[in-house]
Amino acid sequence: MRISLFVPCFVDQLTPQVGLATAQVLRRLGHTVEFRSEQTCCGQPSFNSGQWDVAREGARHALKVFRGSEVVVGPSGSCVAMMRNFYPQLFKGQPEEAEANDLAQRTFEFAEFLVKKLGVTDVGTKFSHKVTYHDGCHALRELRLKEEPRQLLRAVKGLELIETEEGESCCGFGGLFSAKFPMISTAMVQVKGGALVRTGAEFVVSSDPSCLLQIGGWLSREGKPIRPLHLSQVLANEAS
Amino acid sequence: MSDPKAIFLKDASVSTADGDQRAFIRKALGGYYVNRDLQKARFRSWEKARDAASMAKWSAVNDLGNQLEKFVGNFEKNGGVVHWAQDAAEAREIILKIAADAKAKAIIKSKCMTSEEIHLNDALAKAGYGVVESDLGEFIQQLRGEAPYHFVFPCMHVKREAISELFTKHLGTAPTNSPEELTMIARRHLRQLYVDADIGISGANFLVAETGQISITENEGNARLTTALPKIHIALAGIEKVVKNLDDLAILLPMLATAGAGQPMTCYNTLYSGPRQKGECDGPEQFHLVLLDNGRTRLLADPEQRDALHCIRCGACLNVCPIFKNIGGLAYGTTYQGPIGSVITPHLRGLKQWNHLSGASSLCGACTDACPVRIDLHHHLLHNRRNAVKTNPTLFDRVFHFGFNFVIQRPKLFAFGGKVFRTTLPLLKKLPLPYLSAWLKTRDLPTPPSQSFRAQWKDQNHE
Questions:
Q1: ipTM tops 0.90
Q2: Is A222 a domain residue?
């Protein structure tokens, strides 16, 4: 299959290793991976801020970038939810409505793509560490993915998966919410981060690099021992 | 300071800084999660029950005019008197007039959030009536001089010791740490007040169109006393409370109890069928119902958010909301706290002043999953944000998002901007920049890589 990578804008700029690991896993499974370098951001920050007219301009660019692609795979539940669930709303009644609906149908979150589309749960990797998994809210409740990333993690040799308290609680990222209401966002990550630390895991793994930005940022500031890692990095085994 | 947003930001800063109080609220809700899941498991399919409950409310709200007419016809046939109130002021006037006509002195009330919405207690007190709340939580909040913290559990934030102190101060009782004793103190105090009251004011959980009955659900029995002992019963309800028939009520009552409080059924479920009938020896002589619009028809006219009128005020969305659990109910500054409050308050009080509540959400969606009548809560927060931008865009937001979307349509500019951001980040961190400094106050950012993903990809793939 020819897979077009959808790399979130902040992954491009701040955590490129997540994009590289995603490509590595997909290639190892025998697929052709392309990166269309005209891509930038899906427009979610503006969409979530209520600026739908402006967001549509940015999203139009993304539609153009991925035109003609076979499947689009992104290592982020949140950015994929934007394309899958919110592009159809954003373009409803617009000339691009059909194109937005079409892109929504062939865009997949990384774990979802592996398990549901490719039918793969064991990607043949080893990671001898204790990890806990953080469900990003968009993956969990917009894309309804809960078992898929866990199936992938359970198949990793040597990996011990520990479930956390506050398992379905939001980490408090919420995009610009984290900076517009920093005191609420911080209170939320204190609750979430505290629970993650109590698991005794060495790594907190997630399908959502934006949650990891929030959780990792707080853990680092507080000097906590547990480290953030994207699911793709575990599956590509880049941890040690 | 009268700007609701400024007050909200200040109050939320104070309450989120109170770690003990936040832990107390989390602990208080711990038992609820266990019981709720236990009760949900008793349903053959909770999800199908949600469909049915949602359909029950949908079919009534989408035929509201006819269903209300049917209800009112049957209610009047039973001997009740209906009053229509367009807004809070009209509702207050109606109730004040009934009280004046009856030459009433003392009024007892059972739990009624709609009365909080119209600030009824203040109006009655100003007119010289003694008003006492008979629901234990509301009674405590009344003594504290504080609004309800949670529209189902009004004093869930108050510790036992504080309640004991409150009773000692106001009722002169001996300090005690026992919940049973505290309840008995309130009970003894309230008993005589039911007997003395000329008027009992209640809310209504549902208005049953096919029978003209009012359904009230409660755990303390205080609503039964409030509505049965005084000579006059006034019920106050929003027009969206109507359901078509008793079959629909039969699904909604257990859903309300399970979703909201983790109970199989609320302890007392009563259908009120009108005033004392000929030959009956008890019940009120007059039975009034005030039906309140107060912005609800505005919500009804909005097909996108009309389902917010399905709300049965169970409180499930508050119980699961990480915002509610961390800022607490009082910080909202609204009658209805939590996600449903953030959705409907802009419709009831104005979007311009109350849109910040829709912004104060990470859009995690826990509320939408918890709602027994499937209100699309967290997406409505997005809709409110969009509607607010349409009517009242702020200059900063306009410039910021215009700039951002200008950049993301130009890949070369985006790559260049990213590089500038990464290389100057150590300097940027020291500047008082919007958003960035708010983030950095409590969280680090990863050390930026020297090369972006796109640059590394280009190198590795020789593109």
A1: yes
A2: yes
